[in-house]
């Protein structure tokens, strides 16, 4: 009631202003009515609250915070309770640093192993990603602040992410790309959602009524804040009509003037603006009385980071049980990450860690001898993986390879010593043609600031490995289902593979992979027995058949052999991490829920159940099924949207060479054509390569040269990477009010070869914009 009373006292000018940020990290305030600014900060795996002048790329200093393992890492724990514990710590640190909305977790699907931001995302599977995200959200929000799952939706690559259109059929959209968000909203209670940069089926995510109104608000019942990704707003009026609440970071007051003009012209009503403003007021009131005087216990949070890293590391190979190492083992340390660890990714999530452990420093705490010559060692510990440049917001990976210089070093070491144990750091899948040169491979992913002791705990047997992969490891990128329709020079990115991403493809068509989804070894062994299937779920017994205490991650998959709709062979529908003492047995139960048997019908436009028998699979990973059963479910609908016999490749899962006409059948309408003609405000700056203006082509060459140099150095230049992929429209959204939309349109006029007309528009527009901003500010903050 208080929020509605405040809303009734706002002027239209104040309402319009509230729907855009006032600076890089804060929403606008209205002091006369007690509406405070809402402060945002990046925080998928650690709070990045900048001090002084803010910038979304992390170029300026941020306050010290705990760097926890990234989402890609913690997903390997398959442990929502751990995710919730991390979430509580993140929330605690956010409150201590005066943060109201923590921008995370990230839960886009890992459609491609080359996405440069995969380290920030949980999984290629929406159930696992959704359950982990919901846990983080519950933990963060337990501290009376807002969590913000991102990026909604279908954001699966970084290159030209702000100037591309995800073309995806409705069923795949719902089942693969939205389900994780649905779980985060319904089970996690997320109070904020961040809209993505890209278009989804021809409409920008932030002004996509289907996404933001029909599904998010009306179907899922979300009543919180929708905030744009930084610079993601395109048409602000259309965004507000779709109940997007805060346009970030700081477009000045040009956007507010757009709204007022739209009201005057009848393109939007003040009632529609009220709907968008109300959640902003509610958020400001919700966090208003938070106590920011309390700090956080750095040592306790460091210990939690270590616990998370231990429980998330994955043992991928262990020939002759070389691990764990016995006390007194003579070891030689080699590899680029001995002294300088890779423990987090680059970009907006980069954390100024409270402390960072290194292997070289902490090895002395363990009962091992450090030798210099690998020929004299019992075991060589080789610390390697992806360099920083490979994994960053703003750019995608160029290949699945680890750097060649590391492979050469490994080959040389293997020639000197037969017992090389690899300890890998990387945020996504890599090729492993060098695997035979290793006796064991422990994958720590990006293990956070306490990764060194966590990994050595496992190596020496103080802790046991319990993690399992949350993504598949193909032998090469050419094995990936999307390889033939992931062209980066296209604006329209066709998701022709439909639901066959990751293991859904590899498992269905029996493509061999290096490591399957859900795979992970232990220092002990487990046995499954006594499967019971009821209408409500499954139960079975897991026994630790080894001599060491440990944990098994039991996985439930469901399939249907004779289906009238497109389906993978099996899909993850539940999981349970079970801790067992040596020789101990436990009965494990996994319940069915509303997502176990559903599919999205484009006939009824809602979730349905296909009647008939379903296969039940239980095991240690998608390829290691120990128990099988069946259950019969009554159908809710019989009509299907297509004749599956006419979709030969979709029916078999052999979609790598799928022709566009078969995709068009499930897409349900004509596929969009590539845009031709002059550049417009929604094209990216990197597209100035084809500009009519000599000056703009020169600017492109300078940008490209700087970008190439950063790759050569191996250190990402985040500013250049962002600008290179940024569309012209974002200039007016990220310039602090210096540039208006009309000025951007004039800049594009210059790009298209009309210099004098364009420069005139820029100059006149600048003075008009500055004058209008001053006038608006004076009226807005009048006493």
Structural summary, described in words:
- This protein is α/β, with parallel strands linked by helices and 783 residues long.
- Among the domains are: 2-37 and 146-286, Glycoside hydrolase, family 3, N-terminal domain (TIM Barrel, Alpha-Beta Barrel); 503-651, Immunoglobulin-like (Sandwich); 685-780, no CATH class.
- It contains 21 helices and 26 strands.
- The strands form eight sheets. The chain has a six-stranded mixed sheet with strand order 9-14-13-12-10-11, covered by helices on one side.
- Helix 20 packs antiparallel against helix 21.
- The longest helix is centred in the last third of the chain and has 26 residues, at 755-780.
- The chain starts with a helix and ends with a helix.
- The mean pLDDT is 94.
């Amino acid at each position: 009631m208080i929020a509605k009373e405040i809303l009734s006292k706002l002027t239209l000018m104040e309402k319009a202003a509230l729907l855009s940020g006032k600076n890089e990290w804060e929403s606008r305030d209205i002091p006369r009515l007690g509406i405070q600014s809402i402060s945002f900060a990046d925080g998928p795996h650690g709070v990045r609250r900048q001090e002084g002048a803010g910038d979304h790329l992390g170029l300026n200093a941020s306050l010290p915070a705990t760097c926890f393992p990234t989402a890609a890492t913690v997903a390997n724990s398959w442990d929502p309770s751990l995710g919730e514990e991390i979430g509580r710590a993140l929330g605690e640190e956010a409150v201590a640093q005066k943060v109201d909305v923590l921008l995370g977790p990230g839960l886009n699907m890992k459609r491609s192993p080359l996405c440069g931001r995969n380290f920030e995302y949980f999984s290629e599977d929406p159930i696992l990603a959704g359950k982990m995200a919901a846990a983080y959200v519950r933990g963060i929000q337990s501290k009376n602040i807002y969590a913000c799952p991102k990026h909604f939706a279908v954001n699966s690559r970084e290159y030209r992410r702000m100037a591309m259109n995800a073309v995806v059929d409705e069923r795949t959209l719902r089942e693969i790309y939205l389900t994780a968000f649905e779980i985060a909203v319904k089970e996690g209670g997320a109070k904020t959602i961040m809209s993505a940069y890209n278009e989804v089926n021809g409409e920008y995510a932030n002004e996509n009524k289907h996404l933001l109104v029909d599904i998010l608000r009306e179907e899922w019942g979300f009543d919180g804040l929708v905030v744009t990704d930084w610079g993601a707003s395109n048409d602000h009026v259309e965004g507000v009509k779709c109940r997007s609440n805060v346009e970030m970071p700081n477009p000045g007051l040009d956007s507010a003037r757009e709204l007022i003009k739209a009201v005057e012209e009848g393109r939007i009503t003040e009632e529609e603006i009220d709907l968008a403003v109300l959640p902003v007021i509610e958020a400001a009131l919700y966090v208003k009385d938070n106590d920011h005087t309390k700090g956080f216990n750095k040592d306790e949070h460091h210990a939690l980071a270590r616990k998370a890293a231990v429980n998330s590391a994955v043992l991928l190979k262990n020939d002759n049980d070389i691990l764990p190492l016995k006390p007194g083992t003579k070891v030689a340390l080699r590899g680029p990450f001995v002294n300088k660890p890779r423990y987090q990714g680059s970009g907006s999530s980069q954390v100024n860690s409270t402390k960072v452990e290194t292997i070289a420093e902490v090895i002395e705490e363990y009962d091992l001898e450090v030798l210099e010559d690998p020929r004299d060692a019992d075991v060589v510990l080789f610390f390697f993986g992806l360099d920083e440049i490979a994994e960053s917001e703003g750019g995608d990976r160029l290949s699945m390879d680890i750097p060649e210089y590391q492979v050469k070093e490994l080959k040389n070491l293997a020639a000197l010593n037969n017992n090389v144990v690899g300890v890998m750091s990387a945020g996504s899948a890599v090729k492993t043609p060098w695997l035979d040169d290793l006796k064991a491979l422990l994958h720590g992913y990006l293990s956070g600031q306490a990764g060194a002791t966590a990994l050595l705990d496992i190596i020496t047997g103080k802790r046991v490995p319990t993690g399992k992969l949350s993504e598949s490891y193909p032998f090469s990128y050419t094995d990936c289902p999307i390889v033939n329709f992931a062209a980066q020079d296209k604006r329209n990115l066709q998701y022709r593979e439909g639901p066959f991403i990751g293991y859904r493809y590899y498992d269905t068509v029996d493509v061999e992979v290096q490591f399957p989804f859900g795979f992970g070894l232990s220092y002990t062994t487990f046995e499954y027995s006594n499967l019971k299937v009821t209408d409500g779920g499954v139960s079975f017994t897991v026994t630790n058949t080894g001599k060491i205490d440990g944990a098994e991650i039991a996985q439930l998959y469901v399939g249907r052999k004779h289906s009238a709709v497109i389906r993978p062979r099996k899909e993850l529908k539940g999981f349970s991490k079970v801790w067992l003492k040596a020789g101990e047995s436990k009965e494990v139960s996994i319940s069915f829920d509303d997502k176990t048997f559903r599919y999205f019908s484009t006939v009824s436009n809602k979730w349905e159940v296909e009647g008939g028998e379903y296969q039940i699979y239980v095991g240690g990973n998608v390829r290691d099924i120990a128990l099988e059963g069946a259950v019969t479910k009554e159908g809710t609908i019989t009509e299907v949207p297509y004749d599956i016999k006419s979709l030969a490749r979709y029916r078999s899962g052999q979609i790598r060479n799928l022709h566009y006409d078969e995709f068009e059948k499930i897409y349900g309408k004509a596929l969009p054509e590539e845009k031709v003609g002059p550049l417009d405000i929604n094209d990216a700056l990197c597209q100035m390569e084809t500009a009519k203006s000599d000056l703009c082509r020169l600017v492109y060459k300078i940008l490209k040269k700087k970008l190439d140099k950063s790759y050569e150095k191996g250190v990402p230049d985040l500013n250049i990477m962002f600008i290179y992929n940024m569309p012209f429209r974002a200039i007016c959204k990220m310039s602090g009010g210096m540039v208006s939309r009309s000025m951007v349109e004039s800049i594009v006029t210059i790009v298209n070869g009309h210099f004098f007309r364009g420069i005139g528009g820029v100059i006149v527009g600048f003075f008009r914009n500055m004058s209008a901003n001053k006038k608006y500010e004076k009226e807005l903050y009048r006493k």
